[in-house]
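Exercise 3.2. Students should predict the tertiary structure of the chain below and write it as structure tokens, then compare their answer with the key that follows.

Predict this chain's 3D structure.
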Amino acid sequence: MDTPHEAGYDAGVGTGESSPQSVMPRPSGPREARPKDKLHVRGIHVRYANAVPVIFRTRNFFAGAPSSDMVAAMPPVVSIRNLSKTYASGFHALKGVDLDIERGEIFALLGPNGAGKTTLISIVCGIVNASTGTVLAGGHDIVRDYRKARSEIGLVPQELTTDAFETPWDTVSFSRGLFGKAPNPAHIEKVLRDLSLWDKRDNRIMTLSGGMKRRLLIAKALSHEPTILFLDEPTAGVDVELRQEMWALVRGLRDKGVTVILTTHYIEEAEEMADRVGVINHGELILVQDKAELMRKLGRKQLILQLLAPIAEIPASLEAYKLELARDGHELTYTYDTAGERTGITALLAALAEAGIRFRDLQTEQSSLEDIFVSLVGRHK
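Answer key:
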């Protein structure tokens, strides 16, 4: 049975030691001709043990995001296979989820309340045990190699859970120490400044506003410089201006190579920030797609015509266009597929002229990610 220390997302942490990634053949030739016993190249650390070079990966993710070619050649930073969770009551929270999340992307996981978003995140972060399936985080199995897996992850939980009598400086520094990291006041200062908490660093947490406490949770999650950051409803209870600042912070982390997985009820948040979108409902992942491609495939446009004179009904000659009549006969709406070869607008305007229907103005509207989300969830009820 897991101890409380092992079960928490910021507990059961790594030792701070690097782990070998691969071993190369023993170098040939006299010892003088061999490389030095220690060699450091950006992002790679090589040490010789018994004349065998061992490559270690460094944790300098602040050096910048990898190029697109490098990302394409890398394995997914999070790999989930056949993940299921069934509680003792018989409730199936997750049902055979398969998902790969690439390095350096912002991935938005959308779903209604109770869809399984938080359960999925909790399993990856080691808080909840899966019933079946495997998860790799940063190449480490979350069960067999849980310390190294969890040291790769930062989690901002949905609930506000902080020690009311501590100060932001102390609690963020303590969180860093839990992951076996040496003290780094400069990093703690940068995190607090980026989250507009520097002026409150010595205040007791109980005196902070709700928005500040949420930002503090993000600071704690970033304290140990993770390569994977989970944000579970990060801007709930945050004002509009601060939400914009936090979006900028998340983009900045992505630009530095951090992978961000975001769950949110604010659809505009996903539409604004995400590179890819996943939709989960009733424990099943029903769609994973590039956001722009999703908008292109499932997004629809509407042509809205403001008529010069109202009509009582749509003429039979226009039935093929499936028009909608609104505003007491003063408005006609034509919905068309943006991905189609032809929109049908030219033919519609000609048909309207033949029917003697004249309009004084027209406008187009694009369906939003929220419209697409509602449509997808509605199909899978």
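Discussion points: The CA atoms of residues 46 and 215 lie 38 Å apart. The chain is about 30% helix and 30% strand.
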